[in-house]
Amino acid sequence: MSEDAAQDLEAQTSKSPENHKRKDYLHWDDYFMATSLLSAKRSKDPVTQVGACIVDSQNRIVAIGYNGFPRNCSDDVFPWSKAPKRSKKDDLLEDKKMYVVHAEANAILNTKGMSLSGTRLYTTLFPCNECAKLIIQVGISQVLYLSDKYAHKPKYLASKRMLDAVGVEYKRHIPLKKTITIDFEED
User: Which residues carry out catalysis (predicted)?
Assistant: First the structure.
């Protein structure tokens, strides 16, 4: 190979995309929130699908979860709707809220008892008061959420009150990328 050809090859190689990192890679927070969104796709709830992802201080996913019925409770037998307001006591047994395990609780349970002290929780919906109790109890230090559409409801106000009281930081995640496409046919 001539010296000129070798220099041409070297110049092409140095300009090659393989020698430079991609600039459009996912930021960690977008990656973990996208994981929560993908997990939410597992939910069979016809109205509200929620996903959660717990991450340690080294940016490792330690658990994920989504909203659904407890293990072995058939999603063909238990109700997927809410009971009408002012329902009789028996009607409340046909309310999905009596049976559904929230995404945050499922993610915590999916850690199988490992320490969650100092971890971060990514969730597609701001956690309710019951999930906030669990978040506090296991030592999660930060909650990042995508939506807070029920912020005015008492159980979400109570959640914020508890999280504030113990110093668990929470903030709305604003994605750097507005869309992420997953294509199973892509090379």
Answer: 104 (proton donor)
CA neighbor of 180 nearest in space, from 65, 75, 69, 30: 30
3-state secondary structure at position 145? strand
Question: pLDDT band for position 89 (50/70/90)?
Answer: low
> Which residues are the active-site residues?
104
In terms of DSSP bridges, do strands 169-172 and 120-125 run parallel, antiparallel, or are they unpaired?
unpaired
pLDDT above 60: residue 98:
yes
Q: Quick one: which of 112, 105, 37 has its CA closest to 69?
A: 105
The string of pLDDT tens digits covering residues 9-40 is: 555 555 555 678 888 889 999 999 999 999 99
Q: Domain coordinates of the chain in residue numbers?
A: 28-67+102-172, 72-101
Instruction: Tell me the whole-structure pTM to 2 decimals.
Output: 0.86
Binding-site positions for Zn(2+) read: 102, 128, 131
- Class level of CATH domain 28-67+102-172: alpha beta
